[in-house]
Amino acid sequence: MKPVVALVGRPNVGKSTLFNRLTKSRDAIVADFAGLTRDRHYGNARLGKHEFIVIDTGGFEPTAESGIYVEMAKQTRQAVAEADVVVFVVDARAGVSAQDHDIGAYLRKLGKPTVLVANKAEGMTEGAQLAEFFELGLGDVLPVSAAHGQGVRSLIEEALGALVLADAEDEEGAQADPGVIKLAVAGRPNVGKSTLINTWLGEERLVAFDLPGTTRDAITVPFERAGQKYELIDTAGLRRKGKVFEAIEKFSVVKTLQAIESANVVLLLLDATQGVTDQDAHIAGYILESGRAVVLAVNKWDAVDAYEREQLQRQIESRLAFLKFAPLHMISARKRQGLGPVWTSIAEAFRSAMCKMPTPKLTRLLQEAVQFQSPKRAGMFRPKLRYAHQGGMNPPVIVIHGNSLEHVTDAYKRFLEGRFRKEFKLIGTPLRIEMKTSANPYSDKD
Question: Is 419 annotated to bind ligand?
């Protein structure tokens, strides 16, 4: 599971600037979930080969008693609870404030790993001005400049140090069974994830238990259907009560994102009575960004009339157009209707995600595609696509080699993707095409 880092501090200390610096783009926001406050954002970040999730929070006032600040404090506390490590951001120019003391006291009491960061510290790496922050009782102060990128790498190395080692040990100790399909059920609260999970468990009379050693309370439920083993990765908050699992609809964005990352296939559940919301689109976008195979299921289909069904179909076609490769099923978890075909699509999506594509076949398909339709000329040059090979699975990656490939248009890439998908019968999985231009042997010569 990806480590989670929460950015906490009073207003205007540069948390959002640091967030954008870590995610490397203002567009890297994964979710601005309605109802969770506008100031709480989730993004993907990377340090070398290590990826992690960053949470940006609003200004934190632990002692607030009224107004919007109370709600912002609630959201910050939730972010801290979800995080593995907290980055407490203070303003190096403004010095220590009473609010900083309140936040420091709260974090000390909580006992969660915390890194104290003094932002806006350009030219103050050895300055005495930073010494006053030691009175917060959170150890050493790391000077950074989020706006200029100074000290940010050291900050992340400090924050992730122990977590990266722990994750490496977890990965070494976890022997994945290649015959098991890891399935995550994702969706908004109250779309019926709990009902669907309980229907599966009850209908198949499966033995379910907590797997030991899972990190950060991620719960998996192993079960078998028609001879195929599955590992259900919980995003609905399954909790054990005696011998029965109760699915509790407790919305945790981090848990959903981590479950998606851990899965081979994601079942994205929509609510027919609510339509396709912004939250649905955000979760769908994250699934696509993660490269996971996906199956769409619209629950509560029996609760809407013909007109609402037609409107819902149009919403899916427009708002989730980027998932047009995903199978779509209309189901009723409560009435156990339409569930059989969902399992068929899950198995097919997994097969597509793990599909092996031989180099000779890929190269032949590439050459046939070029003969059928050549890429557009760019100035004096026309891209030359020479050969292709597979660069990865889950999602499948096809690497194409040639010359002047930086001029290949997105439209032509979609054309190639369509031909590859048709030949290998890829259903329910993203397909990534990478272009690698051969180096010019004369580029260094005069």
Answer: no
Rg (CA), the chain: 25
Q: Is 227 annotated as contributing to ligand binding?
A: no
Q: Where do the CATH 3.40.50.300 domains begin and end in the chain?
A: 4-173, 180-353
- 302 labelled ligand-binding: yes
194 annotated binding-site participant: yes
296 is annotated as contributing to ligand binding? no
Q: Which residues of 165-196 are buried (b: 16+ CB within 10 A; e: fewer)?
A: eebeeeeeeeeeeeeebbbbbbbbeebbbbbb
4-173: which CATH topology? Rossmann fold (3.40.50)
pTM of the predicted model as reported, rounded to 2 decimal places:
0.73
The dihedrals phi and psi of 26, each to the nearest 5 degrees, come to: -70, -20
CATH fold of 359-437 reads GMP Synthetase; Chain A, domain 3 (3.30.300)
Q: Express as a percent the part of the chain with pLDDT over 70.
A: 79
Residue 149 annotated as binding site:
no
Looking from the CA of 233 toward its CB, the CA atoms found within 13 Å total 26
- The answer to whether 16 is a known ligand-binding residue is yes
Task: Compute the distance between CA of residue 361 and CA of residue 145 in angstroms, rounded to an integer.
Answer: 51
Helix (H, G, I), strand (E, B) or coil at 394: coil
Q: Is 416 exposed, middle or buried (0-12, 13-18, 19+ CB in 10 A)?
A: buried
- CATH number, span 180-353: 3.40.50.300
List helix spans (H) across 15-88. Answer: 15-23, 68-82
58 has binding-site annotation: yes
Q: Contact 248/194 with Cβ under 8 angstroms? A: yes
Does 119 carry a binding-site annotation?
yes
pLDDT in tens, 85-142: 999 999 888 888 888 898 999 888 888 889 999 988 877 655 666 788 888 888 888 8
Within 174-304, where are the H helices?
A: 193-204, 253-262, 278-290
Outline which parts of the chain fall under CATH 3.30.300.20.
359-437
Question: 269-310, pLDDT tens digit by residue?
Answer: 999 999 898 888 888 888 998 899 999 999 999 898 999 999
Is 234 one of the annotated binding-site residues? yes
**436 DSSP 8-state letter:** E
